[in-house]
Amino acid sequence: MQVISNLIEAHIFREKDGEIEFLLLKRAPYQNYPNLWQMVSGKIKDNEKAYQTALREIKEETNLIPEQLWIAPNINSFYSPDDEYISLIPVFAAKVKNNSEVKISSEHSEFKWVNKNEGKNLLAWEGQRRSVDLISEYFISRKTFLNFIEIKF
Known about the structure:
Helix content is 24%, strand content 41%.
């Protein structure tokens, strides 16, 4: 069995009234996992760094350019029984301006800004929900021992 890392997850958020809201995207009906709510995700291209993939996918899927980007202290994973591999997925947190205009790609059918609890209710996988908790804890309560490393781009 192989262990690979060729995907990223990027949780886009904005600050509003002392809280943060997460941008969730609903996968188009013709995509794998149709109608599933998710954060930005994507495949790392050859010779591309994971954070570069996150920035590219954010732009392609939402037309947003983050003000800041961090590595979230969480690695998501899944097992593929068909291809017999485990995938390790770096997670990024991307802050955008409060008034940013979202323009979704054809990969998605709709989007919405949600609070932490609604986001956790809509996301399918535990690792994604954990990322929402970690990001909220870090950027709102700031009572965490975790360290988010900012990527300068």
